[in-house]
Automatic annotation (TrEMBL):
<feature type="transmembrane region" description="Helical">
    <location>
        <begin position="150"/>
        <end position="171"/>
    </location>
</feature>
<keyword id="KW-0472">Membrane</keyword>
<feature type="transmembrane region" description="Helical">
    <location>
        <begin position="260"/>
        <end position="280"/>
    </location>
</feature>
<feature type="transmembrane region" description="Helical">
    <location>
        <begin position="115"/>
        <end position="138"/>
    </location>
</feature>
<keyword id="KW-0812">Transmembrane</keyword>
<feature type="transmembrane region" description="Helical">
    <location>
        <begin position="380"/>
        <end position="400"/>
    </location>
</feature>
<protein>
    <recommendedName>
        <fullName>O-antigen polysaccharide polymerase Wzy</fullName>
    </recommendedName>
</protein>
<dbReference type="Pfam" id="PF14296">
    <property type="entry name" value="O-ag_pol_Wzy"/>
</dbReference>
<feature type="transmembrane region" description="Helical">
    <location>
        <begin position="43"/>
        <end position="61"/>
    </location>
</feature>
<keyword id="KW-1133">Transmembrane helix</keyword>
<feature type="transmembrane region" description="Helical">
    <location>
        <begin position="224"/>
        <end position="254"/>
    </location>
</feature>
<dbReference type="InterPro" id="IPR029468">
    <property type="entry name" value="O-ag_pol_Wzy"/>
</dbReference>
<feature type="transmembrane region" description="Helical">
    <location>
        <begin position="434"/>
        <end position="454"/>
    </location>
</feature>
<feature type="transmembrane region" description="Helical">
    <location>
        <begin position="73"/>
        <end position="95"/>
    </location>
</feature>
<feature type="transmembrane region" description="Helical">
    <location>
        <begin position="191"/>
        <end position="212"/>
    </location>
</feature>
<feature type="transmembrane region" description="Helical">
    <location>
        <begin position="412"/>
        <end position="428"/>
    </location>
</feature>
Length: 465
């Protein structure tokens, strides 16, 4: 339904930008090969190389002469914070003498070996490089402009039907977090799988996206208000990432109508990060601020947010992930089918790589609701079987997906609806799994198809009348 309306065409990349990425791939491959012969790079070297990688992303954006408010740039900013935060802050930190950016201090007291650092950083460079090559070397053209079967009243009714139970669920999470602590929200990960546990939130965001492209300005304002509430609820419960990804989506939407300069956007991101850190002190996850200067606040926040690099490094040491986790990452309803076939409950830790990793790292803390999280890099590494060319291909496909959202949303209400619905999940992907994205696409397509049927039935009844 969506793929049949688009075509993919090759696009020339600026010679300087292309040369830069080719050099990066050549140099990183050489560095990785030398690492295989025990010639390793220091943590400071990795950090400075990552800074250069970030600057190349920005330079490519300017050479391609496009607006900075693209899906790619916002995704990369979230990636730089959630994956590369420790690499960015490492040379700037002045307090507490940070350890290696690749280490892990929570649940698993893990000190990354030089060999693991070498592999993890090579994966990181491959992902960013081929993400950019995939995005910049194609253009997506929508052949027709499908209109969504919604009027203002119908959109409002659907949105309220989803918003009311979602708001009750959010209030329940906040109450639990403030009464029993931040980790109490995740005690469900230790029990048997319950069907539909994440379905409500998925449906809610699908309807948010579809309602946003309705003809009614009032409905669009309601969607923006609900997105803001979702972000604020996240920071109140202690989830800074939820707040930052919602703000990124709102900035992307604003950038579709107004031009935002690069330095203005950087200042906004910095302000949002500091604001999130300050608001956290009034949340269910309040901690004492020990930083003595603005630089310490920023670097400390980046160090805390960049823990996913350590999680990814640690995940490369763990083997034997559950088979159901592979299937659940792609197909929704896998757990329900597994329970139906086996006749007994499926342990929630067998359904995701993140839960399996956390349970392996520290079973006792896992049972108390603690977790390490995950990263899209972990997904791609597992699904590629450790084969770097296949990992690169998967990275290109993600770049194509970002390009499709950017190009398609300019001319198609359907693609704009998808961008709004999936935006927060997409920007959080550096710290999450593809299981939050791929099954969601199934939900979106199914609900859109269902709304088409309802709209067709309503139109037929009116004609008969």
């Amino acid at each position: 339904m969506m793929l049949e309306n688009i075509s993919l065409r090759g696009r020339s990349m600026h010679p300087l930008a292309l040369s830069g990425w080719i050099f990066v791939l050549f140099a990183s491959t050489l560095q990785f090969a030398l690492g295989c012969f025990d010639e390793f790079t220091s943590d400071l070297g990795y950090s400075l190389e990552f800074w250069a990688l970030c600057l190349l992303c920005v330079a490519t954006l300017r050479l391609q002469r496009v607006a900075v408010t693209s899906m790619l740039f916002f995704f990369e900013c979230c990636f730089f914070v959630f994956i590369g935060g420790r690499l960015l802050s490492y040379p700037l930190m002045t307090i507490n003498g940070p350890g290696s950016p690749f280490d892990l201090e929570f649940m698993a007291e893990y000190v990354a070996t030089d060999a693991i650092k070498n592999i993890a950083f090579f994966y990181l460079v491959i992902f960013i490089s081929f993400l950019n090559l995939g995005y910049w070397t194609v253009s997506i053209r929508v052949r027709q402009r499908p209109s969504l079967p919604l009027n203002g009243k119908f959109a409002s009714a659907l949105l309220l039907m989803a918003a009311i139970p979602m708001l009750f669920q959010t209030f329940g999470r906040l109450k639990l977090a403030f009464s029993q602590g931040y980790q109490a929200q995740y005690l469900g990960q230790t029990s048997a799988y319950q069907a539909g546990s994440g379905f409500l939130e998925a449906i809610y965001f699908v309807l948010l996206g579809i309602a946003y492209v309705s003809p009614s300005k009032t409905v669009r304002k309601l969607v923006l208000m609900l997105l803001c509430l979702h972000g604020l609820a996240g920071i109140a419960s202690g989830a800074r990432g939820q707040f930052l990804t919602v703000m990124a989506l709102l900035l992307w939407l604003y950038g579709r109508r107004r031009k935002i300069r690069l330095w203005t956007l950087m200042l906004i991101f910095t302000a949002l990060g500091v604001c999130a850190n300050l608001l956290l002190q009034f949340s269910a996850r309040a901690t004492q601020i020990e930083a003595a200067s603005p630089l310490d606040v920023i670097t400390g926040m980046l160090w805390d947010q960049g823990v996913s690099l350590g999680v990814f490094s640690w995940s490369l040491n763990v083997h034997g992930y559950p088979l159901l986790a592979y299937v659940q990452t792609i197909f929704p309803g896998t757990a329900w089918v597994a329970q139906l076939i086996s006749g007994h409950a499926v342990d929630a830790r067998d359904l995701s790589f993140a839960a399996a990793l956390s349970a392996t790292s520290d079973p006792d803390m896992f049972l108390k609701g603690n977790g390490l999280g995950w990263s899209v890099l972990g997904d791609l590494a597992l699904f590629s079987g450790g084969m770097f060319p296949l990992f690169a291909l998967f990275s290109v496909l993600i770049g194509w997906g970002l390009r499709a959202l950017d190009d398609g949303s300019r001319v198609s209400a359907l693609w704009m609806a998808l961008a709004v619905a999936i935006g927060p999940r997409l920007f959080f992907l550096p710290r999450a799994s593809l299981s939050t994205i791929i099954p969601f696409l199934f939900y979106f397509i199914f609900i859109y198809w269902l709304l088409q049927l309802i709209s067709g039935a309503r139109a037929s009844s009116r004609q008969r009348a």
